[in-house]
Amino acid sequence: MTPISRRRFLQGASALLLPLPEAALQAALEPDQAVPALPELPLDRSEPGLAEGRLVAEARPVRINSRTVEAWTYNGSYPGPLIRVREGETLRLSLINRLPVATNLHFHGLWVSPSGRGDNVWLQVPPGESFTYEFAIPAGNAGLQWYHPHIHGASAEPLFRGLAGPLLVEGDEAFERELVCDDRVLVLKDLTVEGRRIPRVRPTEVSAGREGQWLLVNGMEQPVLQANRTLLRARFLNASNSRYWKLRLSNEAPMTVVAFDGRTLESPRELQELQLVPGARAEALIVLDNPAPVDLWYHPVPRREMQFTGSRPLLRILPPPVPTPVSIPGRLARVPRFGAAPPDTERDIVLGLFNLCGRFLDPARVDIRTRVGAREIWNVRNADYMDHAFHLHTWHYEILELDGRAPAHVERRDMHNVRIGETMRIGIHFTGYSGRTLYHCHFAEHADAGMMAVLQVDP
Ligand code: C2O
Ligand code: CU
To answer: Is CB count within 10 Å lower at the N or C end of the chain?
Structure first.
């Protein structure tokens, strides 16, 4: 983006509700400013039920934010290509490692096997080698998930350099057919670039969690989205290392959320703002029934002392040239509930800086052992001086209470913020799969430093 068009964007943004003059609208449509559509990963479906593709991880120069940057990419794309599969399919995905370091894949948000060729974070692919993942994606996975490397102690740098991509699972809930909308996947990622290079993390950035200077939407700062329908379905993924993104619309209209963390809600929820912790997803319907452009704004979240990054416009949304009908279904999906029956086990998990329950990750140690079918309650208490973002692999959890108060809606998440001093009480039903997996803080720097622990689920 040139400095001149940047200035134009910001002027428009400060005008908020005022319609832009025709000339400014034209300027906003300069092709170099259009929000990039992520390339879709080609999948071979010649064998019924199987979707087969390949991801090449490599360091190479790519265009990011209209600059040439030495990034780490999947198939030459920053962020990585969109993997689009359907519930009921088996994904066979070859990972070819052309990086100078070992890598692997975690399929964040997928309820699939954590063992064998599944979402197995224990295996590592050395430089120059490849590995083929293959796992069934059953019903219950529909929504926006994502993939990124998961090497213990060494995930933050590759993630910051660009190794992350969205994975969209299509389902067949009736509302999906009723919803006539412009459907977009928008990956939020921050980045710092010096010259052509992405600098290494500075030691002082580790404890707070690293944040980049550019706030990118699909790899571009302040792009423009020309909607082709009056109803926009914006599927947001926060693929940043540690930045929290709070999103609001400039016209102060609510957004209608239909899914959090890749799981459809029972019914739509109108929210004035969305807060996405690292790793989180939210799918929001935005109604563009006014001819004026709407800006999506970023606002900082004070998640620790003395932190400040200014608010800024992230994305300009232009309504469609010709309005289309808007209809938002009242019911979306049937959502499994944890329920009130007494759990099999209740546990306390204490979040400290770089540790869980006072211990750093030891991949050889099992921190929690349970069995398939168990229903457990975990009290996740933040004893640290900053917020942390709690993630569990394979199983979504239901938030039962935050500091003793039950949420107003069913909250099924695989990511949630735990504020300083807060206790998040969650219910987990370990259905479907056995194996060894992980739970951790999703600040990539914290996870690398040891804020991660091992969960073993016995058959
Ligand atoms: Cu997206 Cu273990 O994480
Ligand atoms: Cu943390």
So the answer is: C
